Amino acid sequence: MRGKARPSALRVFKDLVKTVELTPADEAKLRKETRTRETEKLREKLRDTGILEVTTSEDHERLLSGDFFPTESFRAATRWFEQARVGGSNVLLLLGKEGRGKTLAAGSVLVRNEGRGRYRTINRLCRWFQSRVKEHTDQFDLSLSTELLILDDLGTELDRDIARVVLQEVVNARQDRRMLT
Question: Distance between CA atoms of 34 and 152, rounded to whole angstroms?
């Protein structure tokens, strides 16, 4: 009788299983609760990346809901991320005037990467680098260890010489390791 269930076993199993039929309202409530839990998990992950510190509450909601304007920055970031995951270039540079959606596009990449990564402004990275040099510690451990690193506000650095050195070292080290930057 290998492979066939005995009728008595089926009856016992049937008695143990309770069938629950959800009403459409219950199903809708369950879907909403699930979305809420998933949104909160994503919010926590994005908070850890640093992107929520520099975006507006309106942008937070866009990042969490996936409701993005199809800007050129967004399309370029999406294309790059999909290609980078399958062996394409691991470095993307978005250029443009303020208000063109570059930061939000970078945030969308963090969302696609399920919140695994870090967002840093160039000034914050330079300050961090300078404190590491004073402490004589490994300057690039944080920048190198994260799966995805987003550097923003290039061109606004307070000390261009330090920024150039930091940027060159971080990008080169990450490029050598094929890490997304």
Answer: 33
**Averaged pLDDT, groups of 10, the chain, 181 residues long:** 56 62 82 85 85 86 80 87 86 83 88 84 81 63 73 81 84 84 85
43 and 51 Cβ atoms separated by less than 8 Å: no
Q: Reduce the secondary structure of the chain to three states and give it as a string.
A: CCCCCCHHHHHHHHHHCCCCCCCHHHHHHHHHHHHHHHHHHHHHHHHHHCHHHCCCHHHHHHHHHCCCCCCHHHHHHHHHHHHHCCCCCCCCCCCCCCCCCHHHHHHHHHHHCCCCCEEEEHHHHHHHHHHHHHHCCCCCHHHHHCCEEEEECCCCCCCHHHHHHHHHHHHHHHHHCCCEC
What's the residue count for the chain? 181
CA 38, CA 31: separation in Å to the nearest integer?
11
